[in-house]
Design brief:
alpha/beta; Aspartate Aminotransferase, domain 2; Aspartate Aminotransferase, domain 1; 2 domains; three-stranded antiparallel sheet; 14 strands; globular
C-alpha cells in the first residue's frame, strides 16, 4: 500500500547523515533537531505554535486535557474514522457522540453535527479523512453558535489546504482551537516510528499543551498541572526535518497517482471515484473507491491479491459497532451513510513512489475484474 523503502532510498543521502548527527551528539531527547523541526513546521503551516509529541493519539488526548474537558462532557465525532479518535474521548471519561458523514467526501456532516448538539456538548472533532479537509466553514459556524471547542484530527491530511468561502486558504489543523497530527510511517509527513504534534494560534493553549506533554511541567521537577510523558524523540525529528522539505512534492506525487486512477475509473458504472470537496485540496493519504452493491468486495480483494495488488478497507466496522464502544450507540440517530460505506469502500495503493507502469498494472486489473459486472 505504501512503498517506504523506495522513498527512503531516494532520501538516503540526507536521512542517514541526519540520523548520524543525532547519534554523534547523543542528544536523544529534546535535542536541537526537535526545536528546529518545531519552528520549521510552524513556518510551513503558518501557525504560531507547534508542540511536538509522541504520537497522534497522544495529541488528541492532550488537546482535550488542555481544553479542560471534564468527565461526562460530550464530544461529537464522526462514526467513520480510525479508533484513536474515539478511544481518547472514552479514556478521559468523556462521552463520544457519533454522527454520520457526507456520502461524497467521507467527512463529518455539519447538518448531523447540528442535530447532535445538547447542553452537554463541549467539543467537535472533525476528521480530515483520507487527505482532504472537512467542511470547516460550516463546522466553525456551528461552534461559534454554541460556544464549542474544535479539535481538528489532521493525521491523514498534513499539507492539505482548506479554502473558505471568502477564498482564504489555511492549512489543515490551523483553523480550530487545536490541530492534532500523526507522523506514523504511512502518513503524508512521516517519520520512521511514532511521532505527532499539536498546533494552535492560541498562546494560552500553547503553554498548557507544552506543559502537559512534559509531565505538566515548565521547569524540571516542578509540576504545575496533571500531564503525561509524550515527547517526539530527536532521531524522528531529524528524519522529519528532511522530509518536511519535500512534503509538497510528496503530496503532488500522490495527487498525480490519484489523477491517473480517476481517468481509468471515471466511466465505470460500478466504481465511484473519490470526490474532491470544493472547500479543500486533497493530498490522498488514501485513494478510496466506492463499489456498487453487485461487486463482491472480498472476492475482488482476493482477485487483486492473486495478481500481487494489495488493497485495504478503511473502515470495515463503524465506531458505534465496535465491541468496546457499543454502549455509546446513538440510538435513533441515523448513521446509514457510515454503514453503507463500511460495506462498499475499498482503498488502492497510493504513495509517493508510484510510476506509470505500476498504476497501469493496478488499473488494468481493477477494470478487468469489474468491467463484466454492470450496475444493476
Amino acid at each position: 500500500m505504501v512503498d517506504l523503502k523506495t522513498q527512503y532510498e531516494r532520501l538516503k543521502g540526507e536521512i542517514d547523515p541526519a540520523i548520524q548527527q543525532v547519534i554523534d551528539s547523543s542528544a536523544f531527547i529534546n535535542g536541537p533537531e526537535v526545536k528546529t523541526f518545531q519552528k520549521e513546521l510552524q513556518n510551513y503551516l503558518h501557525v504560531k505554535h507547534v508542540i511536538p509529541c509522541a504520537n497522534g493519539t497522544d495529541a488528541l488526548q492532550i488537546s482535550m486535557m488542555a481544553l479542560g474537558l471534564q468527565p461526562g462532557d460530550e464530544v461529537i465525532t464522526p462514526d467513520f474514522t480510525f479508533i484513536a479518535t474515539i478511544e481518547v474521548i472514552v479514556l478521559l471519561g468523556l462521552k463520544p457522540v457519533f454522527v454520520d458523514i457526507a456520502p461524497d467526501t467521507f467527512t463529518i456532516d455539519p447538518e448531523e453535527v447540528q442535530k447532535a448538539i445538547t447542553n452537554k456538548t463541549r467539543a467537535i472533532v472533525p476528521v480530515h479523512l483520507f487527505g482532504q479537509c472537512a467542511d470547516m466553514d460550516s463546522i466553525m459556524s456551528i461552534a461559534r453558535q454554541h460556544n464549542l471547542h474544535i479539535i481538528e484530527d489532521v493525521a491523514q491530511a498534513t499539507g492539505a489546504e482548506h479554502i473558505s468561502a471568502d477564498m482564504t486558504r489555511r492549512k489543515a489543523g490551523t483553523i480550530g482551537n487545536i490541530g492534532c497530527t500523526s507522523f506514523f510511517p504511512s502518513k503524508t509527513l512521516a517519520c520512521f516510528g511514532d511521532g505527532g504534534a499539536l498546533m494552535t494560534d492560541d498562546d494560552i493553549l500553547a503553554e498548557k499543551l507544552s506543559m502537559i506533554v512534559n509531565h505538566g511541567s515548565k521547569k524540571k521537577y516542578f509540576n504545575d498541572s496533571i500531564g503525561v510523558n509524550s515527547r517526539l524523540d530527536t532521531i524522528q525529528a531529524a528524519i522529519l526535518l528532511v522530509k518536511l522539505k519535500y512534503l509538497d512534492d510528496f503530496n503532488r506525487a500522490r495527487q498525480t497517482a490519484a489523477g491517473f486512477y480517476d481517468e481509468a475509473f471515471r466511466q465505470s458504472s460500478v466504481i465511484k471515484i473519490p470526490v474532491r470537496a470544493s472547500w479543500s485540496t486533497h493530498v490522498y493519504h488514501q485513494y478510496t473507491l466506492r463499489l456498487h452493491d453487485n461487486i463482491n468486495r472480498e472476492e475482488m480483494q482476493k482477485y487483486l491479491k492473486s495478481r500481487g495488488i494489495p488493497t485495504m478497507i478503511y473502515y470495515p466496522v463503524a465506531m458505534h459497532r465496535q465491541k468496546a464502544y457499543r454502549q455509546y450507540s446513538p440510538g435513533n440517530r441515523s448513521l446509514k451513510v457510515t454503514q453503507k460505506l463500511c460495506d462498499t469502500v475499498l482503498s488502492l495503493p497510493i504513495h509517493t513512489e508510484m510510476g506509470k507502469d505500476q498504476l497501469e498494472y493496478i488499473t488494468d486489473h481493477v477494470m478487468e475484474y469489474t468491467e463484466n459486472k454492470p450496475a444493476l
